[in-house]
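RNA polymerase sigma factor, Lederbergia citri. Tokens?
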Amino acid sequence: MKSFAGLRVHEIVQTYSDTLIRIAVQQTKNMSEAEEIVQEVYMTLMRQKKPFDSEVHLKAWLIKVTFNKCKDYFKSSRVKKTVPMTEEMTFIAKEEQIVLPEIFELDPNERSIVYLHYYEGYTTAEIANLLDMKVNTVGSKLRRVRMKLKAFLEEGS
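Tokens:
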């Protein structure tokens, strides 16, 4: 059986599927499309020839490929009109079960940065690497998103 960074495929699926699904759902706003995208990510992994240096490298690769597959999804003819946020998407906020509907109003790049920073704990430099952006761009987008969300929260209270 094929293994990557010392993990077998079934271990990788068990370990990273929740993370990859959360990324794909917050990008596409569609659970079934998100599941399909994650399947495509695993198919891409199976075709991967280069070894991974570590499990951290593997995780970063999986996240990057998921974001790229989401971009491909928006370029494809599969995209329909925006799907409204549903209760099934509330799992995105991990244990807290808190999802600000305003997060889904952000553009996909902003949602990606928010997700990677607050949910996965990546630094701005790591996010810049994952999303092929400049560190300063990630930092300024993160600051703008914080201001937008603060304004949303202040309006609601």
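The chain has two domains: 1-90, 100-157.
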